[in-house]
Amino acid sequence: MIDITKQVEYWISGSEEELSVAFTLHKSMKIRQSLFFAHLTLEKMLKAIICQKTDNIAPRIHNLIRLSEIADLI
User: Fold this and answer.
1) Roughly how many angstroms between the first and final C-alpha of the chain, as a whole number?
2) C-alpha to C-alpha distance for 32 and 30, rounded to whole angstroms
3) pLDDT tens digits for 5-64?
4) Angle, helix 4-27 to helix 31-54, in steps of 10 degrees
5) Which of 16, 23, 25, 73 could form an S-S bond across to 34 if both were Cys, CB 3.0 to 4.6 Å?
6) Is the Cβ–Cβ distance between 46 and 68 less than 8 Å?
7) SS (H, E, C) the chain
8) Angstrom distance (rounded) from CA 74 to CA 66
9) 42-71 core/surface letters (b: 16 or more CB in 10 A; e: else)
């Protein structure tokens, strides 16, 4: 059986790490790279929300709009 709490913690932890990298890259004026890590930040946080709301693992997709729909945010 899947431990959803651990899944949520995994996605939140990863999201926080990606956000830190995005800020560091932004300060270094590496804007495109910063935006990539910002995308990862949002993706991982959406997956944490999906796990919480559905009590299941998050889908293996990267489309932020689709993840937002699955998370019932839009």
Assistant:
1) 30
2) 6
3) 999 999 999 999 999 999 999 999 999 999 999 999 999 999 999 999 999 999 999 999
4) 160
5) 25
6) yes
7) CCCHHHHHHHHHHHHHHHHHHHHHHHHCCCHHHHHHHHHHHHHHHHHHHHHHHHCCCCCCCCCHHHHHHHCCCC
8) 9
9) bbbbbbbbbbbeeeeebeeeeeeeebeebb
pLDDT digits (tens, 9 = 90+) for 5-18: 999 999 999 999 99
Structure tokens at 73: 């945010």
Q: Which amino acid is at 4?
A: I
